[in-house]
Amino acid sequence: MLATDLPLLIDAALEAGKIATRYSGTEAQRWDKPDGAGPVTEADLAVNAMLEQRLPSARPGYGWLSEETEDSSDRLSRDSTFIIDPIDGTRSFAEGARTWAHSLAVADHGEVTAAVIYLPMRDLLYVAAKGQGAMLNGQPIKASRLSGLSEAEILAARPNLEAHHWRQGQAPAFGRAYRPSLAYRMALVAQGRFDGMLTLRSSWEWDIAAGDLIIREAGGVCSDRTGQPLKFNNAHPQLNGVIAAGAEIHSQLSEQLDPDGPGIGK
After folding, report:
1. Does the pTM of the predicted model rise above 0.85?
2. Residue finishing a domain among 109, 140, 171
3. Do the beta carbons of residue 205 and residue 237 sit within 8 Å?
4. 127 with 214: CB under 8 angstroms?
5. 53 with 77, same domain?
6. In sequence order, what are the residues at sequence separation of 6 or more whose Cβ sits closer than 8 angstroms to the Cβ of residue 1?
7. For 48-91, what is each residue's pLDDT tens digit?
8. Transmembrane segments in this chain: where (predicted)?
9. The last residue of a domain, from among 102, 117, 140
10. CA 117, CA 99: separation in Å to the nearest integer?
11. Is the CA virtual torsion 244, 141, 116, 156 positive or negative?
12. Phi, psi (degrees; rounded to nearest 5) at 27
């Protein structure tokens, strides 16, 4: 089914956009999850309900991992698994902003093989399938080929620049920017709008699975904070941070980061 997973994800993402945009973010009912896990809105749950009905029914042999569904070990016995964030950037959604995304991926034996990141309020549809390249709104995209880190624009939250994360006791010089959706940050790197992104905290798989493939298919490199390739559908679905960039910038960031530095909020 791998050849047809991408069209399935695209159709589901477009439907997710229709559902989410029926809600006014500032007026949508909102709750805070236990243990400081962040907010959830009725839009997140409505999108999740549609996706959980639609996708597994189309691929009954696939596992299911979603931010808004209680996890089950059943997915660990499946060769392929859907990895879903119904709305990445829920805080932005709840504030009525436009920078939030639907993030949908399929992982096969731990490797993402089909991926979609869709921002309906910005009319941006990023897609990739393994070996077929990455596209934005039907046009091919490529990651930055910049070679000088000092000239780079890197998407990162400010705490990532704290001295204890870096081998030399200080962050290297580069331009810093920020976007609230982690999936969107990764898509922007794949697009070449920014030269790289990093988050040094333990990161949930559903935030980064789709972006991992889209970046790699755009010619970039995506790894955890120690430089190791990302593997998905783990028993505990968190990964050790993310570094994503073109090959030269990724190498320079990896070399200067302290792989044993403490985790931080994203």
Report:
1. yes
2. 140
3. yes
4. yes
5. yes
6. 59, 80
7. 999 999 999 999 999 999 999 999 999 999 999 999 999 999 98
8. none
9. 140
10. 12
11. positive
12. -100, -15
